[in-house]
Specification:
Helices cover about 90% and strands about 0% of the residues. The protein has three helices and no strands. α2 packs antiparallel against α3.
Amino acid sequence: MNEKQNESQPQPPREQKAKKYAGNVALAMELPFTIVGAVLLGALLGYFLDHWLHTKVVFTLLLGGVGFAAGLREVLRRLG
């Protein structure tokens, strides 16, 4: 019951500022992994598709580019 009382009371400005700063730091640490992960996933899928179809690096580059676009879109969505 004590926790419910604490949640209903407004937080001091200092605590609000600290939570906002911590959230921004967490977002800044997460975004590079988001875009790099999307590129690597696309390129890896493209590599296996190239290997399976006995083609050159066509699908690796194509799906790597699609992964880059998807990662960039996700980063911009989270920042907006």
